[in-house]
Design a protein that fits this description.
Elements: H1 27-35, H2 53-67, H3 71-84, H4 89-101, H5 105-118, H6 126-138, H7 142-153, H8 161-181, E1 189-190, E2 200-206, E3 212-218, E4 224-230, E5 240-241, E6 252-257, E7 263-268, E8 279-286, E9 289-290, E10 294-295, E11 306-311, E12 317-322, E13 332-337, E14 348-349, E15 360-365, E16 371-376, E17 386-393, E18 396-397, E19 401-402, E20 416-418, E21 424-433, E22 436-446, H9 449-452, E23 458-467, E24 477-482, E25 487-493, E26 500-506, E27 510-516, E28 523-528, E29 537-539, E30 542-544, E31 552-554, H10 572-584, E32 590-595, H11 602-622, E33 630-634, H12 647-653, E34 655-660
Parallel strand pairs: 23-29, 23-30, 32-33
Antiparallel strand pairs: 1-22, 2-3, 3-4, 4-5, 6-7, 7-8, 8-9, 8-10, 11-12, 12-13, 13-14, 15-16, 16-17, 17-18, 17-19, 20-21, 21-22, 23-26, 24-25, 24-27, 27-28, 31-34, 32-34
Helix pairs in contact: 1-6, 2-3, 3-4, 4-5, 4-6, 5-6, 6-7, 7-8
Length: about 650
C-alpha cells in the first residue's frame, strides 16, 4: 500500500520543482530525520569518543562528506575509522545512520547492533536502540524489534515523554506481531494495467455502480491531476484527464465523488486563490461537462489546512481533514452538512473516539452513511499510518477497529474505498524494490468476511426520469424517506440534460422513494429492505405524468392491515407528500380511488375499497385540504392492473390511486 498520507496532497510524492512541500511527510520519514539529528549536534554531547587519533580523523572526514551531501563517499571513511578503533561507539552509530540514509537497511541494522553490543546500558547508546528498533519496525520485523524497544524504554522514566513514546511503539510492535500471525484472507490484484499511464496513481474513488473511477495521477513532471476511467462490464477504458476546467498546471487531487458521479469535491494546494495552504473545491457535472470549480468558502476552508474530502452518497454531508484550532490532535477529521439552500454548515469535529492527539487522514464514508474508514498514526497499529473503520451509532462513533494484516502493513497505508455493495475494496499499493518505494498502483481485493459483516451494504437504483408523454428528460428530485422515522435518508437531483439519476438504498429498513418535479404528479415507490443483507444494482427508469386531466399515479406507500381500512402510522409519509402537492397546486382537484384483488366477497371488497379511499380523504381534510377538492370512490376488484393469477399480481391490484379531475 501507499507510503503517503499526510502531505499537502499526498506524502511521499513530489510537487513541481521550486515549490515548498506543505505538511508532514509521514511517520517513518520523520523518524529517519530525527535519527540523523546527531550529525547536526556538537561532538561533546556524545560520551564515546575515539581512542585512536587516526580513527578520529577518518570519522571527522566522513562527517564532513556527509555535510556536503556525499553520504556514499562518507561510508568508507567511517568503516575505516571503526577498523582502526572497533570500540568507537559513535562511529558505529554514525555508520548505521549513513547506511540508513542511503536506504541500505541490513548494513544499518548490523551497525546499530554493534553499537548496542559495545555499551548496552549506556544512555549514549539510546540513539542506536532507537534507530535499530525503528528500522526493524519499518521492515515489519516486530519480534526482533521488541527486545531493543524494551531495553530502550528502560533508559527512561515510564511517565516521561520519551518513555510514553517508546511505550506506544512497544504496543504497536506487539499488535503487529499478533496481526501477522493471524492475517486477513485477502488477495489484492491490480485493477487494470491500462490505468498505468503515469508514474503513480492513488486515492481511487468510484460511483455506486463501480462503472466510473476517478483517481489522482502523478505525472512525470511532478504535477498531480485527476483522471477518470470507465468500466464497460469487462474492461476499463484508458484513463483521461477528468476535465480541463478542473486540472491545471498546479496540483489537484484527493477527490471524492457522490454516488451518482455528478458531484466532485477535491483538494488544491497551489495556484488557485484560496483561504489557506490547501483548500477544498467543488465541481458539478451536467451531461458530460464539469463546471468550473468553486471554492467551498470560508466556512469549510480556513487559513489552516483542509484536504482529503469524502462526500456522503447523496453529496449532502462532507468529511475532511483539517488542522484548524479546536481539534483533538494535529490533524483531525471534521464534518459539515449542506442545507436546502446549498450552504455548508459550520464544521463539527467528529470527536475523540476517532481523532487522537496525533494525525488522522483520508476519511472515506461508505455509501451506507455509517461506516467510516480512515488512516491514523495515533491508534494502535502496525507502524506509521494504519487503516481503521468506525461506525456511527445512536450514541456516537464506535471504537475504531484496525483492518488487520495484510491490508495494513509496517508501511504507511493511504486511503481505502469500499464499494456500495460492501464486496470489494480499492486502494493504492506501493510497489517497492529493495525496500524502497518505486511507484503506486491501483489495486482491488474482495473484502474479507469479517469486514463484510461489519459494513452494512447498500443497493442502488439508476435510470432516466422523463416526461411520460414527450420522453423529455427531467431534472427531478429523488428523495429516500425512512418510513419508520419519516426522515429524509438521501436527496439527489437527476441530470437536467439526460434525466439520469442514481439513488442508494441502505439495507435493513423500509423506505419510500419519491420522484418529483414541479408541474408533474410525483411518483412514489416502496422498498422493504428490512430482511435484505446484500447490495445490488437495479435499473429503474421513471416516467412522470404532467399535471392534467386524467393524469394518475399509485400511492405505493399506504399501508392497511388485511381486511381493514385504518391507515398504519407509516402511511403518514405518503399522505403528507400528497397534502404538500395539493397545497402547492391549489387549483387541482383529485379523485382518490380504492382497489382490491379478487379474493373474498365482491360486495365486501367494494365497501372496503370505498372506506380505504375515504380514510385518505379524511386525513387530507384534517391536514387543511378543502374537502371540495377531493373525492373518494371505491372500485373493489373491478379495475385490476394485472391478472389475479399470482400473489405478486394480487399485491399490485390492492392499491390506492389518485387521479386529477
Amino acid at each position: 500500500m501507499a507510503n503517503f498520507v499526510a502531505d499537502a496532497q499526498v506524502s511521499g510524492y513530489t510537487v513541481k520543482k521550486g515549490r515548498r512541500r506543505k505538511g508532514t511527510r509521514g511517520k517513518w520519514v520523520s523518524i529517519l530525520l530525527f535519527s540523523l539529528l546527531p550529525f547536526l549536534l556538537p561532538p561533546f554531547l556524545f560520551s564515546s569518543s575515539a581512542q585512536n587519533q587516526k580513527a578520529k580523523e577518518l570519522y571527522d572526514q566522513s562527517i564532513k562528506l556527509f555535510g556536503q551531501r556525499k553520504a556514499n563517499e562518507a561510508i568508507p571513511f567511517m568503516q575505516e575509522a571503526i577498523k582502526r578503533d572497533p570500540n568507537f561507539l559513535d562511529a558505529h552509530l554514525k555508520l548505521g545512520q549513513l547506511y540508513e540514509f542511503t536506504k541500505r537497511f541490513e548494513p544499518a541494522i548490523a551497525s546499530y547492533r554493534d553499537a548496542v553490543r559495545l555499551q548496552p546500558d549506556n544512555p549514549a547508546t539510546g540513539a542506536a536502540y532507537q534507530s535499530l528498533s525503528n528500522i526493524l519496525l519499518r521492515l515489519g520485523r516486530y519480534q526482533e524489534a521488541l527486545p531493543y524497544l524494551e531495553k530502550y524504554k528502560s533508559l527512561f522514566p515510564d511517565e516521561s515523554v520519551q518513555g510514553k513514546r517508546i511505550g506506544r511503539l512497544i504496543e504497536g510492535a506487539r499488535f503487529g506481531q499478533e496481526a501477522v500471525q493471524h492475517p486477513q484472507p485477502v488477495d489484492p490484484k491490480p485493477v487494470s494495467s491500462v490505468l498505468n499511464t503515469t508514474p503513480s496513481q492513488y486515492f481511487p474513488v468510484l460511483t455506486a455502480d463501480e462503472q466510473t473511477l476517478v483517481f489522482t495521477a502523478l505525472k512525470p513532471e511532478g504535477d498531480e491531476d485527476l483522471y477518470v476511467s470507465s468500466f464497460n462490464g469487462e474492461t476499463w477504458s484508458p484513463p483521461i484527464s477528468l476535465s480541463s476546467d478542473i486540472n491545471t498546471v498546479d496540483n489537484e487531487g484527493t477527490a471524492s465523488l457522490s454516488a451518482d458521479g455528478r458531484t466532485l469535491v477535491f483538494t488544491a494546494c497551489q495556484g488557485r486563490k484560496g483561504f489557506g495552504s490547501c483548500d477544498l473545491y467543488v465541481s458539478r457535472k451536467t451531461g458530460t461537462t464539469w463546471s468550473a470549480p468553486d471554492n467551498l468558502g470560508p466556512t469549510i476552508n480556513t487559513r489552516f489546512y483542509e484536504s482529503q474530502p469524502s462526500l456522503s452518497a447523496d453529496g449532502r454531508r462532507l468529511y475532511f481533514v483539517s488542522d484548524r484550532p479546536g481539534g483533538h490532535g494535529r490533524r483531525d477529521i471534521w464534518r459539515s452538512d449542506i442545507d436546502a439552500s446549498g450552504t455548508w454548515g459550520n464544521p463539527v469535529n467528529i470527536g475523540d473516539k476517532v481523532n487522537t492527539p496525533f494525525n488522522e487522514a483520508s476519511p472515506f464514508i461508505h455509501a451506507n452513511g455509517r461506516s467510516l474508514f480512515f488512516a491514523s498514526d495515533g491508534h494502535v497499529g502496525m507502524g506509521g499510518y494504519d487503516l481503521f473503520v468506525a461506525d456511527s451509532t445512536s450514541s456516537g462513533w464506535s471504537a475504531p477497529a484496525n483492518l488487520g494484516y495484510p491490508i495494513n502493513t509496517s508501511e504507511d497505508q493511504a486511503s481505502l474505498f469500499v464499494s456500495a455493495n460492501g464486496r470489494r475494496a480499492y486502494y493504492s499499493f506501493e510497489e517497492q524494490k529493495d525496500g524502497v518505494s518505486q511507484k503506486s498502483r491501483l489495486y482491488v481485493f474482495d473484502l474479507p468476511e469479517s469486514l463484510r459483516e461489519r459494513v452494512k451494504p447498500v443497493s442502488f437504483l439508476k435510470g432516466v426520469i422523463a416526461d411520460a408523454r414527450t420522453q423529455k428528460p427531467l431534472a427531478a428530485t429523488v428523495e429516500l424517506i425512512d418510513l419508520g422515522t419519516n426522515q429524509v435518508i438521501s436527496r439527489v437531483q437527476a441530470d437536467e440534460q439526460t434525466g439520469q439519476y442514481t439513488a442508494v438504498l441502505p439495507s435493513g429498513g423500509e423506505y419510500a422513494l419519491y420522484v418529483s418535479v414541479p408541474g408533474y404528479l410525483f411518483k412514489s415507490l416502496s422498498f422493504d429492505f428490512t430482511q435484505k443483507t446484500t447490495g445490488e444494482g437495479m435499473a429503474l427508469s421513471v416516467p412522470l405524468e404532467p399535471v392534467g386531466a386524467a393524469s394518475k399515479e399509485t400511492l405505493n406507500n399506504l399501508f392497511f392491515e388485511s381486511g381493514r381500512y385504518d391507515l398504519a402510522d407509516k402511511s403518514r409519509t405518503e399522505l403528507d407528500r400528497l397534502s404538500a402537492f395539493l397545497t402547492a397546486n391549489p387549483t387541482v382537484r383529485i379523485e382518490i380511488a380504492g382497489h382490491t384483488d379478487d379474493r373474498g366477497d365482491a360486495a365486501a371488497n367494494l365497501t372496503l375499497s370505498q372506506k380505504r379511499a375515504q380514510s385518505v380523504v379524511t386525513y387530507l381534510t384534517k391536514a387543511g385540504i378543502d374537502p371540495s377538492r377531493i373525492k373518494a370512490i371505491g372500485y373493489g376488484k373491478t379495475k385490476p392492473v394485472a391478472p389475479n393469477t399470482s400473489d405478486e399480481n394480487r399485491r399490485l391490484n390492492r392499491r390506492i390511486e389518485w387521479r386529477v379531475l
